[in-house]
Amino acid sequence: MPKAKETGLGYQYVDLTVTYDGRSLVINGQHTLLFSGSIHYPRSTPQMWQSLISKAKEGGLDVIQTYVFWNIHEPKQGQYDFSGRKDLVRFIKEIQAQGLYASLRIGPFIESEWSYGGLPFWLHDIPGIVYRTENEPFKEQMQRFTNKIVDMMKVERLYASQGGPIIMSQIENEYKTVEGAFHEKGVSYVEWAASMAVGLQTGVPWIMCKQDDAPDPIINTCNGMRCGETFVGPNSPNKPSLWTENWTSFYQAFGEEEYIRPAEDIAFHVALFIAKKGSFVNYYMYHGGTNFGRTASAFVTTKYYDQAPLDEYGLISEPKWGHLKELHAAVKLCSKTLLSKDQTTFPLDELHQAYVYGDYNSEECVAFLVNRHSKDATVLFHNVSYFLPRVSISILPDCKYIAFNTAKISAQYGVRTMVPSEKFDSKARWAVFKEAIPNFDTTSVRANMLLEHMNTTKDESDYLWYTIRFQQDSPNPRASLSAFSAGHVLRAFVNGNFVGAAHGSHQNPSFSFESTIALSKGVNYISLLSQTVGLVDSGAYMENKAAGIRSVNIDDKDLRSYSWGYQVGLVGEKLKIYSKVGARKVQWNKLGSLTNQTQPLTWYKIEFDAPAGNDPLALNLGSMGKGQAWVNGKGIGRYWVSFHTPKGSSSQTWYNVPRSFLKPSRNSLILLEEENGNPLGISVDRVLRTRACGLVSESHLPPVSSWLEEKQREGKNNKYRTRKGVSPSIQLRCPQRKNISQILFASYGNPSGNCQSYAQGSCHAFNSKTIVEQACLGKESCSISATSENFGDPCPGLPKTLVVDAQCK
Q1: Same-domain check for residues 94 and 163
Q2: 744: Cβ contacts below 8 Å, ≥ 6 apart
Q3: Cα atoms found within 13 Å of the Cα of residue 718, Cβ hemisphere only
């Protein structure tokens, strides 16, 4: 990369000019084709950043992209925090230290499944404010924070024009989805935001994603899974085609199944985008990480894009990471031709087509052969047969030999396992504290109405108590209590006793609650705990969004206009009993020593030593219900194990505990359990990728890294023009500091299944395991050619496949 040279102290950067034209970004006069990955600094820890960025670089990325998270940097107006996981400058400098570029998405509205879309809630209380439109109070605050971030980057000389890594910035985010709601004020706001950003003179281009009316010189970009099909293109012939969010999976909400996007599908759409003159692809996310504390938006799980190429814990996720690495290598083999030659498109037949750059008869020629259909095909390209698997694209860097096919995965398959390191199944180790249930007499905030939840809590807590007292003339054991809430959870107590709960969902946050209750003669107390599970993250007029209880009835009596008492938050929260100091402020009891153990709203405390080693760690909370967890005072996020998916499982059972949160011994785990979970079932588990599995057949391609030498060895008897000079092979690699300790399965022949489930077939070379063991045991990585010369031919005339499953230790 032209921007830096490696020295003994890292990378020495030089000032760069970054411009663009209709083909690509132009860096120091050179057109560039760039692969990028989103890694968000607050969703990981500073101790993880070096490893994450290093693995991204090894995976073939050129750029790291991140949002800027306004609400964590300015939690109170005028009070800034850029420490720890919020240290944006340190994160950008780590990108710089590893010789990569940075893409800075300032927003400052970001969405990102982040609470309140990254906006600080104190904006809500500015008189006359309307978010993200032609509104002076909002524009003043937005410009002030944007200036703050840009000035920080300039002071640290982090823009490329100053010798730093930042080659582009973003203003606003997916505004087109709400622009229509603001009518002409939306249009003028876009013009203002663009003008404001350009006026900051960063020396690098600005972008707006999903904004087809982005004013010059702002570049409009695409977000989504299929931008090669859906993107109508730049809104000017002088702007390049950029893909800012290629979703590698999708975020998950509590109660919803995890979406798994296959590596083949990602690779297909990247190749198609590049074939159609795309020059920048960013994977959202490359590492999703963790929504620590209360940062996730409404109903979104604590884990974020765990199915990305780097999983929540920062471990390489195969085959996604390896398959995309091969794709990047194939594209970069021919990037010079792609960026310098004209493109032509023509049909191979009525169902398949080719995108060609350059002249077939010259040394500079690149072809993308596309099969969009659900059946395999054989096509003719310049009178040569090429086999195209269904829904795939073959890349021919010289228009002759296939270097990569999007449907043929040669990368290994990885398996992540959770291994219990310590079980917390001893009652003697646990201490408990029961949260007090407030009633009307103990509250100090009063109103003759039902207050809106978010405007009352100011996002200081998920919890708001609504309390009321009333006189009952005679006992009523069958009274009906009903309520309607705009979201997200309600727990009801009558005279201090729990009587029921209800909640909404990500798709339908509002819900109704009904319960039959027993009322005593005389004064009765109703205490309703309203809970948010993160705040809304998007939409027009966010400042008007509502949550909390909107109506309450006992039988046919409407209680909305009665006198209500309110308490923001829980006692344990106010005392910060999840911290070392706060925990001393209450009387903890032994587990089992209190009566009414099934009462919701219980705090649990236990101490544990850090497990040995460097493996990532996670809490298995499968025995719990819903709540929050802290380790040594640091919030590891909300958990909601009891909210099952349609298939009957929990959306998330394991919760990330970064090693940097721990001390060698006497670590404090504190949980607020809102339901009736059992803490004796909790364990702290090591997160391991202890297995490496590979599957390759004779039709697979060797690694792209060998293409330059292979392309010179055209096989004379090949039926199809593919890279046959070197046979396909399985590449196995254990995680760092681990070696292959055992071969669990090996078969050369026709084994059935895949790396998730396999079995020996009718054709099997009986020396398969022995040969693989000789090649791999005791090594961190190994390569085994899938050939009859290597294993013998157990079934002449039949196509063969090699499957190897190895244990790492």
Answers
A1: yes
A2: 691, 805, 806, 807
A3: 21
Helices (H), 435-513: 453-457
CB-CB contact of 416 with 687 (8 Å): yes
Q: Are residues 170 and 255 in the same domain?
A: yes
pLDDT given at position 12:
55
Query: What pTM was estimated for this model as a whole?
Result: 0.94
Rg (the chain; Cα; Å):
29
Place of tokens 């600094």: 41
What pLDDT is stored for residue 707 in this prediction?
A: 58
* 104-148: pLDDT as tens digits: 999 999 999 999 999 999 999 999 999 999 999 999 999 999 999
Instruction: Find out whether 764 and 783 touch, Cβ atoms under 8 Å.
Output: no
Q: Where are the alpha helices (DSSP H) in 172-281?
A: 176-179, 184-198, 227-230, 263-275
pLDDT value, residue 5 = 53
Mean pLDDT across 81-100? 98
Instruction: Provide the phi-psi class of 625: left if phi over 0, else alpha when psi is between -120 and 50, else beta.
Output: alpha
Last residue of a domain, one of 293, 317, 333: 333
CA distance 714 to 712: 6
Average pLDDT over residues 417-425: 96
What is the arithmetic mean of pLDDT over 4-30?
A: 79
Q: Are 421 and 298 in contact (CB under 8 A)?
A: no
Of 569, 586, 606, the one marking the end of a domain is 569
Query: Which amino acid makes up residue 477?
Result: P
The two beta strands, 683-697 and 617-620, are antiparallel
Instruction: Identify whether residues 563 and 581 lie together within a single domain.
Output: no
In the structure encoding, which two tokens stand for residue 31, read together?
């057109």
Q: How far is CA 278 from CA 170, 213, 274, 657, in A?
A: 18, 19, 4, 39
| 473-477, 752-756, 792-796: the lowest-pLDDT one | 752-756
| Structure-token pair, residue 644 | 């099952």
Residue 508, CA distances (Å) to 298, 486, 490, 600 in order: 11, 9, 14, 24
CATH number of residue 141's parent domain: 3.20.20.80
Strand-strand pairing, 431-434 and 626-631: unpaired
Classified as helix, coil or strand, 768 is helix
Assess whether 142 and 290 both reside in one domain: yes
Q: What is the pLDDT of residues 220-259, one digit of tens each?
A: 999 999 999 999 999 999 999 999 999 999 999 999 999 9
Q: What is the pLDDT of residues 774-785, one digit of tens each?
A: 999 999 999 999
The model's pLDDT over 704-733, given as tens digits with 9 standing for 90+, comes to: 765 555 555 544 334 344 444 457 888 898
Amino acid at 186: G
Q: Is 20 domain-assigned? A: yes
Domain count of the fold of the chain: 3
Q: Does 196 share its domain with 209?
A: yes
Residues annotated catalytic, as ranges: 174, 245
Residue numbers of the domain that contains 117: 4-333
Cα–Cα distances in Å, from 787 out to 140, 153, 252, 793? 67, 54, 42, 8
